[in-house]
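Q: CDF family Co(II)/Ni(II) efflux transporter DmeF, please. Structure only.
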Amino acid sequence: MSDSTIQWQHSHDFGVDNAKNTHKVKIVFWLTTLIMTLEIAAGTWSGSMALLADGWHMGTHSAAFLITLFAYHYAKKHMNNKSFSFGTGKVNYLGGFASAVALGIVALMMIIESIQRLVEPQNIQFSEAIIVAFIGLLVNLVSALILKDHHHHHDHSHHHHDQNMKAAYLHVLADTLTSVLAIVALLIGKYIGIVWIDPLMGIVGAMVIFHWSFGLIKESSAILLDKSVETSTLEKVSIAMNEKNTVIHDIHVWKIASSHQSAMLSLSSNKPLKIAEYKAIVKEILPQVSHISIELNKLKI
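A: Structure for CDF family Co(II)/Ni(II) efflux transporter DmeF:
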């Protein structure tokens, strides 16, 4: 390999070490899959449509956790692959987006099932269903605690925000919510006799899940579609360049990983600075920029 080739090669490892996250998601995946199997079996045996539906609902979340694990594995496997121009940092956002779509489908399925049960009420073996629902809630709470510390730590840090992990956490919260609503509905149905409260709770839970799903889709898609940073930030760069007698003809700044951005600028000046000096100006305003490309031209007077 020639020296000229080596000079322009540099690290594009803009991802985050997800070893801890992978371990946590694996634990939650197996817990969720275990309860899914239990609920489907118990729902079939007791004739509880609510429990059976919740079991399949947890099954979709198990599939979403597999998406999360795949995203972490893929990012790690290709972290030093030069074929990816800006590294594999966006894989986490892709995993988060896919999981969010799955979350939305789960909510839609819950609404359809709930409407069907409002129209045609089903007989439920309340005692058996309540016991299994409480077991499901306990496992969901444990899963939430496993993911909680990471999620809250990253929610308060703009520099290391893992959309993939956030998606997994929202799936656990969705499971916890549906378990609580199912228990409330089953208790009311058993002791008060209001059977229609069960599908009504299902609709309420689905609407909350839709809200979480939409927020995550909006957040992750902005990164996947290379949404620019705020205009006010670009204006700060423009002002700084003007102070150096330099005109910006074109500028693009976008996110390429959870804590990294890329920037491309086209500049002109009658007294141009060195490229390294321009890069230092950009880095001072945009500390998260890891990749800067600058086109510099002599300003024609």
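A: Brief note, in case it's useful. The chain has a mean pLDDT of 78.
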